[in-house]
């Protein structure tokens, strides 16, 4: 089960992301579902179950990315980019193979919900949702990026123009205005 909680403030440095679980305001799977987020647990190494899920959802294209200082070229620039608030015109689908990372999403009240992605977690963020990503203090994650055929990965930082993008307007109508 994905661990998720509301952030009480916007954390800036990696060493500020440690927390005491008793103090957290937990976000439920229902909170995530209302935002259009889908979560699956597929044990790492269970290729048959993973392939079935990929086939069922039409995820035809994939690659594996390792985010760590010694593996990712332009590490500082790229991790800053991942952590800037942005949206994608298509779903963002990530399967965690090793390590851990934080996926932050905005709810309808503009509060951040932080999800801890751990090995075996597969998260699907809908097109048009504002989000950001960072590795944990361990500074290591290996994940599989999944795409439907013909999808081109592009990120758009949050600004007035992104509010007018068709995927954002559709997202707001379906998940924000409806609740």
TrEMBL record:
<dbReference type="InterPro" id="IPR027496">
    <property type="entry name" value="ARD_euk"/>
</dbReference>
<keyword id="KW-0486">Methionine biosynthesis</keyword>
<keyword id="KW-0479">Metal-binding</keyword>
<feature type="binding site">
    <location>
        <position position="88"/>
    </location>
    <ligand>
        <name>Fe(2+)</name>
    </ligand>
</feature>
<protein>
    <recommendedName>
        <fullName>Acireductone dioxygenase</fullName>
        <ecNumber>1.13.11.54</ecNumber>
        <ecNumber>1.13.11.53</ecNumber>
    </recommendedName>
</protein>
<keyword id="KW-0963">Cytoplasm</keyword>
<keyword id="KW-0533">Nickel</keyword>
<comment type="function">
    <text>Catalyzes 2 different reactions between oxygen and the acireductone 1,2-dihydroxy-3-keto-5-methylthiopentene (DHK-MTPene) depending upon the metal bound in the active site. Fe-containing acireductone dioxygenase (Fe-ARD) produces formate and 2-keto-4-methylthiobutyrate (KMTB), the alpha-ketoacid precursor of methionine in the methionine recycle pathway. Ni-containing acireductone dioxygenase (Ni-ARD) produces methylthiopropionate, carbon monoxide and formate, and does not lie on the methionine recycle pathway.</text>
</comment>
<dbReference type="GO" id="GO:0010309">
    <property type="term" value="F:acireductone dioxygenase [iron(II)-requiring] activity"/>
</dbReference>
<dbReference type="Pfam" id="PF03079">
    <property type="entry name" value="ARD"/>
</dbReference>
<feature type="binding site">
    <location>
        <position position="88"/>
    </location>
    <ligand>
        <name>Ni(2+)</name>
    </ligand>
</feature>
<comment type="similarity">
    <text>Belongs to the acireductone dioxygenase (ARD) family.</text>
</comment>
<feature type="binding site">
    <location>
        <position position="131"/>
    </location>
    <ligand>
        <name>Ni(2+)</name>
    </ligand>
</feature>
<dbReference type="GO" id="GO:0005634">
    <property type="term" value="C:nucleus"/>
</dbReference>
<feature type="binding site">
    <location>
        <position position="92"/>
    </location>
    <ligand>
        <name>Ni(2+)</name>
    </ligand>
</feature>
<keyword id="KW-0560">Oxidoreductase</keyword>
<dbReference type="GO" id="GO:0016151">
    <property type="term" value="F:nickel cation binding"/>
</dbReference>
<dbReference type="InterPro" id="IPR011051">
    <property type="entry name" value="RmlC_Cupin_sf"/>
</dbReference>
<feature type="binding site">
    <location>
        <position position="92"/>
    </location>
    <ligand>
        <name>Fe(2+)</name>
    </ligand>
</feature>
<dbReference type="InterPro" id="IPR014710">
    <property type="entry name" value="RmlC-like_jellyroll"/>
</dbReference>
<feature type="binding site">
    <location>
        <position position="86"/>
    </location>
    <ligand>
        <name>Ni(2+)</name>
    </ligand>
</feature>
<keyword id="KW-0408">Iron</keyword>
<dbReference type="GO" id="GO:0010308">
    <property type="term" value="F:acireductone dioxygenase (Ni2+-requiring) activity"/>
</dbReference>
<dbReference type="GO" id="GO:0005737">
    <property type="term" value="C:cytoplasm"/>
</dbReference>
<feature type="binding site">
    <location>
        <position position="131"/>
    </location>
    <ligand>
        <name>Fe(2+)</name>
    </ligand>
</feature>
<comment type="pathway">
    <text>Amino-acid biosynthesis; L-methionine biosynthesis via salvage pathway; L-methionine from S-methyl-5-thio-alpha-D-ribose 1-phosphate: step 5/6.</text>
</comment>
<keyword id="KW-0539">Nucleus</keyword>
<dbReference type="InterPro" id="IPR004313">
    <property type="entry name" value="ARD"/>
</dbReference>
<keyword id="KW-0223">Dioxygenase</keyword>
<dbReference type="GO" id="GO:0005506">
    <property type="term" value="F:iron ion binding"/>
</dbReference>
<keyword id="KW-0028">Amino-acid biosynthesis</keyword>
<feature type="binding site">
    <location>
        <position position="86"/>
    </location>
    <ligand>
        <name>Fe(2+)</name>
    </ligand>
</feature>
<dbReference type="GO" id="GO:0019509">
    <property type="term" value="P:L-methionine salvage from methylthioadenosine"/>
</dbReference>
């Amino acid at each position: 089960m994905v661990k998720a909680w509301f952030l009480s403030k916007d954390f800036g440095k990696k060493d500020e992301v440690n927390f005491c679980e008793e103090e957290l305001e937990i976000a439920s799977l229902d909170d995530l579902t209302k935002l259009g987020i889908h979560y699956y647990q597929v044990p790492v190494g269970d290729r048959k179950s993973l392939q079935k899920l990929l086939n069922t959802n039409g995820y035809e294209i994939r690659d594996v990315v390792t985010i760590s200082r010694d593996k990712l070229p332009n590490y500082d620039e790229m991790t800053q980019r991942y952590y800037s608030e942005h949206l994608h015109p298509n779903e963002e689908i990530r399967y965690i193979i090793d390590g851990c990372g934080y996926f932050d999403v905005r709810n309808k009240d503009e509060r951040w919900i932080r999800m801890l992605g751990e090995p075996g977690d597969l998260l699907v963020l809908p097109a048009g949702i504002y989000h950001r990503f960072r590795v944990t203090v361990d500074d290591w994650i290996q994940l599989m990026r999944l795409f439907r055929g013909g999808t081109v990965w592009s990120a758009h930082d949050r600004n007035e123009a992104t509010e007018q993008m068709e995927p954002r307007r559709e997202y707001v109508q379906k998940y924000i205005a409806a609740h």
